[in-house]
Amino acid sequence: MITTRIAQQADAEALPDIEQSAGEAYREIADLAWIADDDNQTVERHRELMAKGTCWVAVGHDDRPVAFLSAEIQEDTLHVWELAVRLERQRSGIGRALLENAITNARGRGLVALSLTTFRDVIWNAPFYQKLGFQMLDDAQAGEWLRQVLRREVEHGMPASRRCAMRLVLSEA
User: Fold this and answer.
1) Which of 6, 39, 43, 118 fits 125 for a cystine, CB–CB 3.0-4.6 Å?
2) Among 173, 93, 168, 172, which Cα is nearest to 136's?
3) What are phi and psi for residue 81, nearest 5 degrees?
4) CB distance 170 to 113 below 8 Å
5) Distances in Å between the alpha carbon of 13 and those of 44, 57, 63, 138, 158?
6) Which helix (H) or strand (E) element contains residue 141?
7) What is the DSSP code (8-state) at residue 118?
């Protein structure tokens, strides 16, 4: 049985390995296979985000993380930096549960939206988020902050034509 909870500092050591495992799914996509070998978030970065109270883990009966969602608040929006599920645990609803937990938390904080950046055409990216109500944003809708995030991703090697910003509106501003 999997449960979700707020991430604790002791979880940080396990998260880069989960991200690495999740990235293995990209090996199935020839021009994105390099992502499986790319750098993961550092333990220090995970701890920094955890300290903000906006990171969650999915754990098994042994309380060991098998997935995580890391985010931070940007103005009135919870921005999701990473949603990663161990490869062997993918497609079982764990990612959805973590995202629903983040949505509930954002609503409880009075935030108006969630945002993220992702691949437009990878089935477990934009199409997954669209099923949960996220909308792709054009350049003007994205706003300067998300455009900067996308620019940094492109500078890191992500193909600009395949990346997009998305938003889930929780309430009217």
Assistant:
1) 118
2) 168
3) -85, -40
4) yes
5) 9, 12, 14, 36, 26
6) helix 139-155
7) E
pTM equals 0.93
Distance CA 165, CA 158 (A): 13
Chain position carrying tokens 């998305």: 166
Q: How many angstroms separate the CA atoms of 34 and 46, rounded?
A: 22
pLDDT tens-place values along the chain, 173 residues long: 889 999 999 999 999 999 999 999 999 999 999 999 988 889 999 999 999 999 999 999 999 999 999 999 999 999 999 999 999 999 889 999 999 999 999 999 999 999 999 999 998 999 999 999 999 999 889 999 999 999 999 999 899 999 999 999 996 54
81: exposed, middle or buried (Cβ count in 10 Å: 0-12, 13-18, 19+): middle
Are 74 and 115 within 8 A, CB to CB? yes
Q: Where are the beta strands (DSSP E) in the chain?
A: 3-6, 55-59, 65-74, 77-85, 113-119, 135-137, 163-169
